[in-house]
Amino acid sequence: MLYRRQRRFPTALAVIVTAVVVFPLGYFVGRGTAPNPDLASELTPAIYAVQHAQGTLDVVDLEYARAAAGQPGDVPVSGSSLAAATAAARQGLADLDQAVDLARLYPDRARTARSDFEALVQAVERRASLDEIRTLTGELRGDLAALIPAL
Questions:
Q1: Whole-angstrom Cα distance, residue 68 to residue 77?
Q2: What CATH number should be reported for the domain holding residue 112?
């Protein structure tokens, strides 16, 4: 009994008690200071996707006009400008498909924009007249503008 062993608080028990106290405390403090998401921040990725789709319409107009320049009836025959217009129209449709949140918020507007974009892709692929392409892109600009909410 001369060298009586003192009882020590086990290290593992101290780590467990600390974890049980500190982690929930840190969680609640962190949640308390986190900003609340608002509608604008939730819709931002979808709005950017629609804006990118709007930008592809400019490319379609420009490249299709280049491809149709000097052709009879303003109907392009082939070439890199026609390929660029086709790729831009397809990319715009893909961008519109990324705007899932806006499609949920405005299903009718999204459906109209998607069907008009599909019509544009088909018109470019079948080499419609330049006037028809410009009419379709004009309609699409209005459809896409109606899809973006004023926040």
A1: 7
A2: 1.20.120
Which has the closest alpha carbon to 117: 146, 97, 145?
97
Q: Identify the pLDDT of residue 76.
A: 66
pTM above 0.70, yes or no: yes
77-103 pLDDT, tens per residue?
678 888 899 999 999 999 999 999 999
Does 15 have pLDDT greater than 90? no
Q: CB of 82 within 8 A of CB of 63? A: yes
Under the banding of pLDDT at 50, 70 and 90, the label for residue 2 is low
SS3 per residue for 17-66? HHHHHHHHHHHHHHHHHCCCCCHHHHHHHHHHHHHHHHHHHHHHHHHHHH
Looking at residue 139, its pLDDT comes to 93
CA 106, CA 100: separation in Å to the nearest integer? Answer: 10
> What range does the domain containing 73 cover?
41-147
In sequence order, the 6+-apart residues with CB closer than 8 A to the CB of 144 are 50, 53, 54, 57, 96, 113
Q: Number of structural domains, the chain?
A: 1
Using only the alpha carbons of the chain, give its radius of gyration.
29
